[in-house]
Amino acid sequence: MRTLGISILLLASAGAAVAQQWEIGGAGGAGFLSNVSVASPAGAATAGFQNGFAAGGFFGQNLYPHLSGELRYAYLQSNLQIKSAGESGTFSGNAHAIHYDLLLHTNRRGSRAHTQYFLAVGGGLKVFRGTGQPAAFLPMSQFGFFTQTQVLKPMASVGAGMKYALSPRVSLRVEFRDYITAFPTRLIAPAPGAKYGTLLHDFVPMVGISYVFSGI
Fold first, then answer.
1. If we measure between CA atoms, which residue out of 119, 203, 209, 205 comes closest to residue 173?
2. What is the DSSP letter of 39?
């Protein structure tokens, strides 16, 4: 009897493992970055990044009926920029973000509802990169300096979105993320006497496709 009970438990556990759902997909969109204020003896300015395209992928696991987790990567094209009084200086750059999010969603996969809404929160790392070529004359140098380097920052990720089932396994995803980091002052270095704001937001709307499969 004991052997039968153990066998039933093992079979149930195996069935639960096989029924575990995973999701993989990709998305594209754009990044809209905030700027920080610059207070300097030379006057007022803003420092930050230009808007640019975004693309990435994700791999997720449905943990519970209304909770899933996703490991995500995003490439963000975003040139460095300092602006003041209608003039600006720019420098080529990009960023890479990797993070893990928990998603709280409205219904479980496989329900009759075609649309699933979700909230997301998580964290990870963002690598800022300055890729331009240094020049003898640096515009806006009275406020700051662009550097050809990379800076790693801890990152918080919050967002929301929806999935629309195109088939039992394929979904269209529309989502929005806010990537929050400290401002990378080693990438855009303040000029002597200049003081920069501290917090940077990267607002990233994306549209993508995902595929759900089952496995251990």
1. 209
2. E
HEC-encoded secondary structure of 52-70: EEEEEEEEEEEEECCEEEE
* Predicted confidence (pLDDT) per residue in 162-178, tens digit: 999 999 899 999 999 99
**Residue tagged 């929050």 (tokens):** 180
- CA–CA gap between residue 90 and residue 111 (Å, rounded): 50
- Judge residue 134's burial from the number of C-beta atoms within 10 Å of its C-beta, 0-12 exposed, 13-18 middle, 19 or more buried: exposed
Distance between terminal CA atoms of the chain?
28
Longest dimension (CA), the chain: 85
Residue 51 token pair: 């808007």
Query: For the segment 108-161, what is each residue's pLDDT rounded down to a tens digit?
Result: 655 556 899 999 999 999 999 999 988 767 789 999 999 999 999 999 999 999
Whether residue 109 contacts residue 118, with contact meaning beta carbons closer than 8 Å, is answered with no
State pTM to two decimals.
Answer: 0.86
Domain boundaries defined on the chain? 21-214
User: What three-state secondary structure class fits 196?
Assistant: strand
Domain 21-214 class? mainly beta
Sequence-separated (6 or more) residues with CB below 8 Å from residue 146: 80, 82, 89, 91, 130, 132, 138, 187, 188
113, two tokens? 């509802």
